[in-house]
Amino acid sequence: MNMRIIAGQYKGRKLYSWNKKLPVRPMTDRVKETVFNVLSPYFFESCKVLDLFSGTGNLSLEAFSRGAKEVHAVEKNSLCLQIIKKNSHFLDSSQKFILHKKNVFSFLKKHLSSGSLKKDLNKDLISEKVSLLKKNKSSPLEFDIVLIDPPFKLKAGESIMTLLTQSDLVYKNTVIAIETCQKEFLNKSYFNFHLFSLKSFKDKKVCFYKTI
Questions:
Q1: For 145-157, how does the pLDDT look when each residue is reduced to its tens digit (9 = 90+)?
Q2: What's the pTM?
Q3: DSSP string covering 91-131, please?
Q4: In order of start, what are the domains of the chain with their CATH numbers?
């Protein structure tokens, strides 16, 4: 499967392709274009993007092309990380690309606002605490846009959204896009974040969340 950047500063750039040895399922151009069309109003100068399950960097590099100045990509597979580095060779010096060789769930749990997932806490108290933490962007690891494209077989969308929206990685202006298989259930709300757009395709869907 050939991958390319479809719009922006680096439009038309071909990316190193994935192969059967890689545990990835790259987002197709059609889906990617739809996702970034929905997100386009939220890209701005100095925009920071978090790419979870980054794979070979397909979404990270599209984000750079469309105006992001800093992208953090989380990916645990060593071969994928090597390909990301190859694919990012054309970025200019003003663009900051930070790779995190980590399991996404471990990465999210490390950044939980409460320090840990305490099951005995009242959900209303957690929500209130999260709301207070999100009033202003202050942490260096708070992101304006979060892209999530997990392996469908994990069926982990619900868990990821719950962890992410409890973390200090998001704030009141963060926008989240998550792709899942069509049949996978996702809530309309996760704490402060609410579904504002849903795009359906044959076997998949992309849900978009923000605070309202």
A1: 999 999 888 899 9
A2: 0.87
A3: --TT-EEEEE-S-HHHHHHHTBTTSS--TTS-HHHHHHHHH
A4: 3-205 (3.40.50.150)
